[in-house]
Recover the amino acids of this structure.
């Protein structure tokens, strides 16, 4: 059946598009007709017409930092349950990180993910490990991984600690045009830490993680990139593409600003929990395990710097760092808690509530952070709103007020500090791969 999405606000930053209009999608999932302004798309007897007045049809959202736990930890999440959570949150695609068991560091691991993801209703991109088993000792086979469509590498929850190995990563990755995603953390400073180092960690008696641990690793990496660019070593290499996930400190943002000003290919993302919560929220919480993550919830000063980075354009993307854990891994003492929270289902709501409705950013900028920029950073083709293109939409009701209750959770896990939180603005469905989800 053809579907007409009538009277919507159409937003696609990849095309600098923000207009009132209507879109007709054929039963094969291809855009048939687009009409702008007050014009409508004529409907036939077999067309389904959905009135989108007050709603947004956005280019499909893509989260570039997710942990779907398969293979090896399916008791926390699977590709299938993670896809359900993604759809509930308004995402038509996600990138899965390699810290599975075994680590995705070889063509065999990539083939496993691709095989198990091929029939899922969303797109699954794979981020492979930088080094074998993410141990920081030996490079993964980047060339073979590229033959499986890998576009990015990361050791995810751990940074490559030695400068020599990081130099090799940059040289080898640049030769294959791979995006390097570095979890910036100097473990000689952070080892054993539970939360941000400061007055609240002292009050709770928990070992702290100093925020400079993020800055030191990032500074080293940027200096290495500059060195490689300056000396144009033999054989010459392209400039490495470098991405900072879940950035959380003013110092790191300052370094990213400097790198961008020099024309370096450096980008960064922020999570909704880091622009919404601070270390004080952990201090005041009863369920402290659901406030334990890496990097840790930051100080108010660092949170304010993050908000400024979102406003001034330093931050390129929002990614939720969806990290499911079983109840027993979170319902324990804070110093025994696993790091991370789920986030696919709350990312859009928090972005609209905390950023758009507070007038820090526009809804156009929010969609850029959630859709077109992540795809561009990952080297994916842009979504186009034009006849003949595959329809890939996220539907938003920016005014809907809703509460995230446990019965709405589609993830296999429940580890989130946002249960029973009321938000304004919501993803109400997606259209992808010829199938409509939501808008019932």
């Amino acid at each position: 059946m053809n579907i007409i999405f009538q009277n919507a606000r159409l937003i696609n930053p990849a095309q600098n598009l923000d207009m009132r209009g209507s879109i007709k999608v054929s039963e094969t999932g291809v855009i048939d007709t687009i009409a702008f302004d007050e014009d409508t798309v004529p409907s036939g007897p077999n067309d389904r017409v959905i009135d989108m007045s007050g709603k947004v049809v956005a280019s499909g959202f893509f989260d570039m930092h997710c942990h779907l736990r398969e293979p090896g930890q399916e008791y926390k999440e699977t590709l299938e349950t993670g896809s359900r959570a993604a759809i509930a949150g308004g995402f038509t695609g996600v990138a899965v990180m390699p810290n599975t068991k075994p680590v995705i560091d070889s063509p065999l691991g990539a083939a496993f993910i691709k095989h198990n993801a091929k029939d899922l209703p969303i797109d699954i991109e794979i981020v492979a490990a930088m080094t074998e088993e993410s141990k920081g000792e030996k490079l993964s086979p980047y060339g073979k991984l590229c033959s499986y469509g890998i576009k990015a590498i990361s050791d995810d929850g751990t940074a490559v600690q030695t400068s020599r190995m990081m130099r090799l990563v940059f040289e080898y990755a640049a030769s294959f045009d791979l995006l390097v995603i570095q979890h910036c953390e100097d473990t000689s400073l952070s080892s054993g830490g539970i939360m941000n180092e400061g007055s609240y960690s002292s009050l709770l008696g928990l070992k702290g993680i100093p925020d400079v641990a993020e800055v030191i690793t990032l500074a080293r990496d940027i200096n290495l990139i500059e060195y490689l660019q300056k000396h144009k070593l033999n054989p010459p290499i392209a400039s490495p593409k470098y991405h900072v996930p879940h950035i959380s400190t003013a110092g790191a943002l300052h370094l990213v600003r400097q790198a961008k000003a020099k024309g370096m290919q450096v980008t960064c993302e922020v999570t909704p929990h880091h622009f919404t919560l601070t270390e004080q929220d952990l201090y005041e919480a009863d369920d402290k395990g659901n406030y334990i993550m890496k990097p840790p919830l930051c100080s108010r000063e660092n949170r304010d710097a993050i908000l400024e980075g979102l406003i001034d354009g330093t931050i390129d993307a929002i990614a939720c760092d969806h990290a499911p854990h079983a109840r027993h891994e979170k319902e324990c003492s804070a110093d025994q808690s696993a790091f991370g929270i789920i986030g696919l289902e709350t990312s859009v709501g928090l972005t609209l509530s905390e950023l758009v409705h507070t007038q820090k950013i526009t809804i156009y900028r929010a969609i850029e952070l959630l859709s077109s920029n992540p795809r561009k950073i990952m080297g994916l083709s842009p979504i186009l709103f034009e006849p003949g293109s595959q329809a890939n939409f996220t539907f938003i009701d920016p005014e809907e007020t809703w509460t995230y209750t446990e019965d709405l959770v589609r993830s296999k896990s429940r580890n989130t500090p946002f249960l029973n939180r009321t938000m304004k603005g919501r993803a109400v469905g997606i259209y992808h791969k010829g199938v409509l989800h939501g808008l019932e």
Remarks:
- The mean pLDDT is 96.
- The chain has two domains: 2-56+389-438, 61-377.
- Residues 261 and 368 are 21 Å apart (CA to CA).
- The two ends are 15 Å apart (CA to CA).
